[in-house]
Amino acid sequence: MSRSRFITGLDVGTTNIRIIVLELKKNSKPRVAAAASYPSFGLRRGVVINMTEARENISCCLKKAGEISQSSLKKVYVNIGGNHISIIGNKGGVAVSRANGEVSEGDIERVINEAKAISISPNKEPLHTIPQKYKLDDQEGIKDPLGMHGVKLEVDTLIICGGTPHIKNLTKTVFETGIEIQDLVFSPLAISSALLSCRQKELGTMILDLGGGTTSFAVWEEGDLIHAVVLPIGASHITNDIAIGLRISLDLAEQIKIKYGYCLPREMTRKEIIDLSEFGEEGKFLKREVSEIIEARWSEIFDLVNKELRKIGREKLLPAGVILAGGGAKSQGIVELAKRELKLPCFIGSFQLEGISSQLDNILFANALGLAFYGIREGIDGFGVSREQNLFSKVKRWFKTFLP
Questions:
Q1: Cα atoms found within 13 Å of the Cα of residue 215, Cβ hemisphere only
Q2: pLDDT of 370-402, one tens digit each?
Q3: Residue 118, pLDDT score
Q4: For the chain, which domains are there?
Q5: N- or C-end of the chain: fewer Cβ atoms within 10 A?
Q6: What global pTM score does this model have?
Q7: Where are the alpha helices (H) located in 94-217, listed in sequence order?
Q8: 3-state percent breakdown (helix, strand, coil) of the chain, nearest 5
């Protein structure tokens, strides 16, 4: 029998923690060995605010996944988000080293390292360096210069940075569960790997992750990541809006949102009623009233997304449209509302895998799946992402100071 290898993606979200374990066998397609979820506490807007609570919840989710997969989970790929993430564009240039002018792997590595040499805030750490386009002498728009001939090699890159305190807090929280982090991955990159095809990235598309505490997105064009943003607002804010608007508890507001939430109040009549007696409470509300609250918040979020697209000149100009992911993508009517507000084709993301499929007919696992894909492709450079090797050596050294 061929020996199995397991790759684990750990999605640490504001409202839920989700894990996917992929089983790899030689000459076989990856299959899902386990998928588990657990409520998340101790995070706000994508960052850790209570390490004890977050650690306990991650441990519970890891235990569930380990029992399902019947394997000992030792290493994970973990997502990172939050509005502390910043993206910086930078260029690098070096002389081709070989006498015959042929570009080698060493030249490519040197020019990327040159682009990394930027001055950033002391409380920031680089997470990913993403080469976009290369230039060799006067030839521009090169995707892969390896083996080509020239004198000077240049590169345009995007450098994704995260706040050092937030990176350390998340890293320490996961390490204290007894699990080793193999890499931290910016959430929109992970989801893009799970839900976007090469053709979509080439034509021009956006992955829009409607999370509980944050909304994040990544814009792709000609196969390159050209923009990414994390907005500190998400689906949990809708629950707060309903609670305030109807003067009810947060728990009741969440139940109403899940069961009766609809994004298009114009399609509802004024006779449709929500009777709170089914939730063990007293009172009645119009369904349309709840829908108007939900529509207002989602419209605000889509307006913020449009403003970001306007900055890069891509508002209404993404031929492959918008792929929706995250818990917010489960909202009824969200596709129609997104089409109306963004003026673009919009679709719910989907994926298919062998294995435990009953739990994966759900877009909620896209982030965890993308992290596992990242693990499979690591070293193959599936995102076009150059790993920042120094980051984890520094974080691990820092973490060891807390060990007995």
A1: 24
A2: 999 888 877 443 333 433 444 444 433 433 333
A3: 85
A4: 86-162 (3.30.1490.110)
A5: C
A6: 0.86
A7: 105-116, 164-175, 187-195, 198-203
A8: 40, 30, 30
